[in-house]
TrEMBL record, chain A:
PANTHER family noted in UniProt: PYRUVATE DEHYDROGENASE E1 COMPONENT (PTHR43825), TRANSKETOLASE-LIKE PYRIMIDINE-BINDING DOMAIN-CONTAINING PROTEIN (PTHR43825:SF1)
Keyword Transferase: yes
Documented EC number(s): 2.2.1.1
Organism: Micromonospora polyrhachis
Protein name: Transketolase
Pfam family, one: Transket_pyr
TrEMBL record, chain B:
Molecular function GO labels: magnesium ion binding; transketolase activity
EC number: 2.2.1.1
A Pfam family annotated for this UniProt entry: Transketolase_N
Superkingdom of the source species: Bacteria
Keywords assigned by UniProt, alphabetized: Transferase
Organismal lineage: Bacteria, Bacillati, Actinomycetota, Actinomycetes, Micromonosporales
This protein's record includes keyword Transferase: yes
InterPro entries, sorted: THDP-binding, Transketolase_N
Keyword Acyltransferase: no
Domain Transketolase N-terminal: 25-221
Protein name per UniProt: Transketolase
SUPFAM superfamilies, alphabetized: Thiamin diphosphate-binding fold (THDP-binding) (SSF52518)
Length: 299, 232
């Protein structure tokens, strides 16, 4: 199967439709985005597939209400509408009520670059960090999506699943711990690549004596794994706002003299269209850009 | 206007005096007293023993500022000890100037930021329906100034368009919205244009409040606009 034909979103739709059929506790809340692909599920479960129209504040409020009655809401839209726009609803209608939901976004960071800044959301994970208590999962491949989604449904905790059109060539399973995919000299530089940043990171470090660890679950961060693997030089490569995990990593390594390089999407608005590949290049997140930053840091 | 006859109602004055109130919001707090009393005394099917029963009616105080009247009613009805009223917003108090559902038995939502309760109410109504729980009704109390918040209008439009049957909004109208709700029909018209049924009543008249709160139809959301004197 050509990986370009089946996306993370497709995997999400298939898995969620099956969950709705299998688990009467699950419900899906939409704000028009992806409503057409969920039409068969809506037909089968009209009272648990709820499209509120283009009303994202209500979408999260409804999810909070559903959770208050004991259901497990799955809520879905573009990251910028799901998270940025409805931030206070996430904070109050879920967090402050003491209930959870599974929020599933598409259009992460600059996936929607051709639509412009209005459809970009590089700061979503940082926003969840301001609330705390959220599990944040950033799959790097469509085949990682079903297990993450299924594992999120039996409980009531808050989970953010960040889907992207950027993908690694291979899937790396459901383990939420740091997975070492390339091993350098022990105690040498450690690179942690999150989600779809793995493949460009592996391409960038060809010939370098570095360890590369992968995770699709940056929250809660695998601090035990980090402590076990880190020497005095750590490099984070994250597909969202640069520095999102810096404070966390520095905190874990506070007892160890270390240097940290945090790579990710820049804060400045570039104000250009172009493809996600163009934006990866402009933010220094393609293999060549990563290679230049990593080499300069380690030299 | 009928005089309140239930014995518990006369106790509310004393309990309100025990609450060292939020001066800024004191007028607002008392504006809700009669509506909240009628709800707990004559409408809601919920008791201190049934606060976790899925079949209970839900009362969501969206207008979470000035909850003194709410706390006083909860105390009279036995949901919380009266002694809690003596330390409002103290460091060890479970009662703050905005209620927290995780701290107060019987409180369905934590509120205070305006414009959140109706969306939560819509979700609660949908969640009950999805589980085949058809007896309970969800009541959400808002203020006329709170209606300024756009989130309410997302909920009003959606609940009306989908004929959500088990939801009642109550708008306590003390004419505090900066630009008001002018035009024919006032506040009620903002709901009825979206397919709700509506009643506008004197917010101090217990029998009128009761009649309006029980006038909902089986297949539409319902709103009660309860008018009281403007806040001073």
């Amino acid at each position: 199967m050509d990986s370009k034909e089946v996306t993370m979103r497709d995997s999400f739709v298939t898995t969620t439709s099956a969950l709705l059929a299998d688990d009467p506790r699950t419900a899906l809340v939409l704000a028009d985005i992806s409503a057409s692909v969920f039409a068969p599920a809506a037909h089968r479960h009209p009272e648990r597939v709820l499209n509120v129209g283009i009303r994202e504040q209500l979408m999260i409020g409804v999810a909070g209400g559903l959770a208050l009655t004991g259901l497990r809401p799955i809520v879905h839209s573009y990251a910028t509408f799901l998270v940025d726009r409805a931030y206070e609803q996430i904070k109050l209608d879920l967090g402050h009520q003491g209930v959870g939901a599974i929020l599933v976004s598409v259009g992460a960071s600059y996936d929607g670059s051709e639509m412009g800044r209005t459809h970009m959301s590089p700061g979503d994970v940082a926003l969840f960090d301001t609330i705390g208590g959220w599990t944040v999962q950033v799959p790097g491949h469509r085949d990682e999506v079903p297990a993450l989604l299924k594992a999120a449904t039996p409980h009531d905790d808050p989970v953010y699943l960040r889907l992207s059109t950027q993908s690694n060539r291979l899937s790396y399973g459901g383990d939420t711990r740091l997975q070492v995919l390339r091993r350098g000299t022990p105690g040498g530089p450690l690179i942690v690549a999150v989600g779809p940043m793995l493949d460009p990171t592996l391409a960038a470090v060809a010939g370098l004596d570095v360890t590369v660890a992968y995770t699709h679950t940056p929250r809660p961060f695998d601090t035990t794994g980090l402590q076990a693997l880190a020497g005095s030089e750590v490099i984070l490569v994250e597909p969202y706002l640069a520095g999102t995990s810096s404070a966390l990593v520095n905190g874990v390594l506070s007892h160890v003299p270390h240097r940290l390089l945090s790579l990710g999407v820049g804060h400045a608005e570039i104000r250009r269209y172009g493809t996600p590949q163009d934006h990866a290049r402009w933010h220094g997140l393609d293999a060549a850009g990563l290679r230049a930053s990593i080499s300069a840091f380690l030299s | 206007m009928t005089a309140p006859t239930t014995t518990g109602y006369v106790d509310l004055d004393g309990l309100l005096r025990r609450l060292t109130g939020d001066e800024k919001h004191s007028a607002s707090a008392h504006s809700t007293l009669d509506v909240v009393w009628v709800l707990y005394d004559r409408v809601l099917r919920v008791t201190p023993e049934s606060v976790d029963d899925p079949e209970r009616d839900r009362f969501l105080l969206s207008k979470g500022h000035g909850p003194a009247a709410y706390y006083a009613v909860l105390a009279v009805k036995g949901f919380i000890p009266e002694a809690w009223l003596d330390d409002l917003a103290g460091p060890e108090s479970r009662l703050g100037h905005h209620p927290d559902r995780l701290l107060v038995p019987g409180v369905e939502i934590s509120s205070g930021s305006l414009g959140h309760g109706l969306g939560l109410g819509v979700g609660t109504a949908l969640g009950l329906r999805a589980q085949g729980i058809t007896q309970p009704r969800v009541y959400v109390l808002l203020g006329d100034a709170e209606l300024d918040e756009g989130a309410n209008h997302e909920a009003i439009a959606y609940a009306g368009a989908t004929d959500l049957p088990n939801l009642t909004a109550i708008v306590l109208d003390n004419q505090s919205a900066t630009h008001g709700w002018p035009g024919p029909g006032g506040i009620a018209s903002r709901f009825t244009v979206n397919g709700w049924t509506a009643a506008t009543v004197d917010g101090r008249d217990h029998d009128a409040i009761h009649a309006a709160l029980t006038a909902h139809q089986p297949d539409q959301p319902h709103v009660v606009a309860a008018v009281v004197d403007p806040r001073k």
